[in-house]
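Quick start: what a row looks like.
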Amino acid sequence: MNIASILILCFLAVTFIQSGYDKVSDWKGNVEWLKGHFAKTFIRNRVPELLMLILALELVSGILCLVGVVELLVTREHVYGFYGAVFSCIALILLLLGQRIAKDYDGARTIAIYFIPAVMAVYWLA
């Protein structure tokens, strides 16, 4: 059993489940803020739909990572953890794309920091 994989999966689970919860608990506030964030971009009229896509990816990622931790601890298998890490990478790439479209380079840099452990998890669990 690789304790580093368990720790990274915990990190990703907390990151994405909390982010998904934040989106659900303040949907209207998030949509309004993001409409302003993307006001000068070609995706300005698609903010609610794209936020729903990100929400779904984050929740799937977080839940798969959480199940992956349990799976590693109980059976020493890593199928759910692997897919959780892959979905995490996909979610982060889409978030990075959004930040780059909005020309929010500081936000993009922050997402890149999260991407490093996600890719490490994919590598370790492959």
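That is the whole record. The two ends are 14 Å apart (CA to CA). The chain has one domain: 3-125.
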